[in-house]
UniProtKB/TrEMBL annotation:
Chain intervals for the UniProt region annotation (Disordered): 133-153
Identification of the protein by name: SsrA-binding protein
Organism: Flintibacter faecis
Location (main, coarse): cytoplasm
Any one biological process term the GO annotation gives: trans-translation
NCBIfam families (alphabetical): PRK05422.1, smpB
GO cellular component: cytosol
Keywords recorded for this protein, A-Z: Cytoplasm, RNA-binding
InterPro entries reported for this sequence: SmpB, SsrA-bd_prot, SsrA-bd_prot_CS
Length: 153
């Protein structure tokens, strides 16, 4: 039987600011109160990014609000968190990131069974005209859908 996947947070800004070339899944090293806080949906990926340093992958800027009932066990909400991936996958990503214009961006946080997972995207930054173009395409699609819906009535 497949494990249940429950999405907790999604980084909409990443899809606006970057072209997502490839997606990866990584586990996160968390404290118990952080997991409880994520379960309640108190996580923000807005300005987060990933770094590879000394062969270790970590996410920076990810905000997990302190758990209300966590008292002394709460950790710093913005602390760097280690991501868990196979060594060869990390080294392959490191080689891709070394190419200019590529970065690793967290796309979403979700539960896969009892474990918290992070979806990463190998991303290339969009220029301003690319953002305008994708917004225009989205608006045109919305207009076409509206026209089709009104025509089918």
């Amino acid at each position: 039987m497949a494990e249940a996947v429950k999405q907790v947070a999604r980084n909409q800004k990443a899809y606006h600011d970057y072209f997502i070339e490839e997606k990866f899944e990584a586990g996160i090293e968390l404290a118990g109160t952080e997991v409880k806080s994520i379960r309640m949906g108190n996580v923000n990926l807005k300005d987060s990014f990933c770094l590879i340093k000394d062969g270790q992958l970590s996410v920076l800027g990810m905000h997990i609000s302190p758990y209300e009932k966590g008292n002394i066990f709460n950790k710093d909400p913005r602390r760097p968190r280690r991501l868990l991936m196979h060594k060869r996958e990390i080294m392959r990503l490191f080689a891709r990131i070394k190419q200019d214009g590529y970065s690793l961006i967290p796309l979403s946080v979700y539960f896969k069974g009892p474990r918290v997972k992070l979806s990463l995207g190998l991303a290339r930054g969009k220029k301003l005209y690319d953002k305008r173009e994708s917004a225009a395409k989205r608006d045109a699609k919305r207009e076409m859908d509206r026209a089709m819906k009104s025509r089918n009535r």
